[in-house]
Specification:
globular; three-stranded antiparallel β-sheet; alpha+beta; Arc Repressor Mutant, subunit A
């Protein structure tokens, strides 16, 4: 069971991204959170998942202490229940920037309205954007340690995928090199060589990921004014809006997958000067969101997370 990480090995960022970067893993957790699924056959009947994939994912979730197996059921642990901010952030980004009509709507039980979550600073309650947060590696940080391992990350094949797709989210985090590129972009990389150095990937892979990110509008390539033969890559508004997903994954990872040396990444909120810990609030009433107060509505059915 994963409770603490070994010194010098993959850190909280690598482990947490390795978990959330798998479509079927997210799908299983989502249905456990929103529909209360807990039995093997319930997941098997809920979507086009094979027995082999379901068995593998459930075993991994138990190993990661996200589910616990008891009396023929798979029940969410506290670690698993605390994944709801990640799912809400992913849905909100896809709904805003990808027009993903297949995703459920979110209703705040306290104010009764359909909402989109806003990212705020735990310390000062201010709504926070990517430009308001500075990041630097902590004691267990570093590029090599922060890149997810490839063996636990695989996207579902076309035609045999979860019904509620977060396709562009998976394009950004469903591959170890894509995740590394997202991190490099948010930590200030703009030139091809910077991405190549930080990702530690072959040039062909870096070029392919940069092209993909530009194609979906997360990055934009512009000529370097100082070097005509160089191209610079900058996050677009759509790319910067992905920050709540990044922040909630990092926060969850740091809470539940501790490296003995300390945190992998330190985030600072520039407006209040304190350590940045994300929280979500209702975009309609401004109240802090809690899992029990969020209702997920799909096909006229509503269930609390």
């Amino acid at each position: 069971m994963i409770t603490r990480l070994d010194a010098g090995g993959p850190n909280a960022i690598a482990v947490s991204n390795g978990i959330v970067g798998d479509e079927w893993t997210l799908w299983i957790v989502e249905l456990a959170l929103t529909e209360g699924l807990s039995k093997y056959n319930e997941w098997l009947n809920a979507g086009p998942i094979s027995t082999a994939v379901l068995t593998t994912r459930l075993n991994r979730l138990v190993e990661a202490d996200i589910l616990r197996r008891t009396a023929g059921q798979y029940l969410l642990t506290k670690r698993g229940r605390q994944m709801w901010p990640i799912l809400l952030s992913m849905w909100a980004w896809e709904q805003r920037w990808v027009d993903a009509a297949n995703l459920p709507e979110m209703r705040h039980g306290k104010c009764g309205r359909i909402f989109s979550p806003l990212l705020a600073c735990e310390a000062c309650d201010e709504v926070t954007a990517a430009r308001d947060v500075l990041g630097k590696f902590g004691p267990s940080g570093g590029w090599e340690r922060s890149i997810p391992t490839g063996v636990t990350r695989r996207r579902a094949h076309s035609g045999n995928r979860p019904t509620e797709l977060i396709t562009q989210t998976m394009a950004l985090i469903g591959n170890r090199w894509s995740t590394a590129l997202v991190g490099a972009a948010f930590l200030g990389a703009t030139r091809f060589g910077e991405f190549e150095q930080r990702m530690g990937a072959p040039p062909t892979i870096v070029a392919d990921r940069l092209r993909t990110f530009c194609d979906i509008g997360v990055l934009v390539a512009t000529p370097n004014p100082q070097r005509a033969d160089w191209v610079m890559y900058h996050l677009t508004d759509k790319g910067r809006a992905f920050f709540p997903v990044v922040a909630t994954v990092i926060e969850w990872g740091h809470r539940w997958f501790q490296a003995p040396e300390g945190p992998a990444l330190r985030l600072t909120h520039t407006k209040c000067g304190r350590a940045f810990h994300p929280r979500l609030q209702c975009g309609e009433c401004g109240e802090r969101l809690r899992g029990a107060s969020v209702q997920v509505e799909r096909s006229r059915r509503s269930v609390a997370t």
